[in-house]
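To: structure desk
From: M.T.
Subject: fold request, one chain
Message: Could you run this one when you get a chance? Sequence is below, nothing fancy, just the single chain.
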Amino acid sequence: MITTFPPPPRTLQVPVPLDDLLRVAGEFVNGGRLEEAEGLLTHILSAAPDTAAALHLKGILLFRTNRHEAAAELVERAVQLAPDAAEFCRNLCPIYERVGRYEDALRVGRHALDINHYDLQTLYNMALVYYRRLQLDDSIACARRAVALDPSAPGPHFQLAETLLLRGEFAEGWREYEWRYRIAGAAPPLPPNNRPQWDGMPLAGKLLLIADQGFGDTIQFSRYIPWVCERCPDVVVAADPVMRPLIRQVSSAVKLVDGWDRCPPFAAYCPLSGLPRLHGTTLGTIPGSVPYLRTDPVRTATWCARLHDLIQPNIQRIGIVWAGRPEHSNDCNRSATLAVFGPLAELDGTALISLQKGRGQAAIGSYFERAPLLNLGAEIADFVDTMAVIAEMDLVVTVDTAVAHLAGAMGKPVWIMLPYAPDWRWLLDRNDSPWYPTARLFRQSRAGDWIGVTRQVAEALFR
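Reply: Done. Structure tokens follow.
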């Protein structure tokens, strides 16, 4: 995480009120007025190109607008001009992390700590970098040091949660996971209200469950709804409309609404992602027999006929997804490209069927590999369609997306390609998942090596 408090500017003899301009530019950045801030900072740097504070602040702005390489260049220059400015090094650390320069991130983070041993933000930044390198003991140590400095700081608590959960240390991990909604900018499960969060005990009144995270999380955590209904006879689930057919399969007893504001008065609430903690989930007690999602017979028959017309008999059908939602905070690590599926395209007797939705579909136009690629994305209307297509696949190969959870919850063979430092739910050093028995996990051996992962997949298919 990057802070945006500009340090005192260097004194320069320039014909502009530098102090005032920098102050206003900082206010613009902090207030989200990024276009105005960029114009002002460009003006400052055209007049005084070696102003460290302006270089640093524009680097922050570029980072916020996803121009990460350019951000790194500017903040590097700021550090060269002001090597003892701890905040410059602190903020360069997460920029390096985002572009995959982990060793450099740790180097500048350590330098920031040499200047200020008690810099909580630097400790938090380094905890994340250590997580990316799977140096989990170091990640936990940094997070705990940050928490000791400020027990109310949510970021270090959440980073600690993800690291503990990745190691399978669920008891403390679930407790720390509750800090996720206190992070600045995180969407809360509910606006301020006077209703308590459910404590897991039997409840006579109405309980509101909120599908609070992404579609994949909703699929994963919906398995807890029957357990909730055993304790609470009156349950309402607030979820995106596209999730409603799936949740209805998990439990026909719940009522469904599109949002918390459409729920009648309730006695207590709980986000779906908070249910594992209340359940006391361990690796050995994950609830929900698989499959807990099943296809719609009418849709399945329609897609069966459609695919029969498009794909010759005796051709292996592999459904593929190469990219997740770009807005995801870790999408740069979890998403691949269509090009890395090249090793699968070399398999004889195979057709690749794209289940990809969203902006990633554009890559299909440049596909010229050996195996045919069938683009169904535009025809897939919703998750019910996706499930019907998955039912007709011999195998699904996907990065960490909602489709991985969907195929897993259906009990279909799904091979999930994971980054070097995966999301916590996929754990460590195993090729299976306690959440989805039909899933097989393929992991990067080094950060960013997607080709190596798809070669593993292709070799496994040859066997």
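Reply (cont.): The beta strands are 207-210, 235-238, 255-257, 268-271, 316-321, 350-354, 373-375, 395-399, 414-418, 439-443. Let me know if you need anything else for the meeting.
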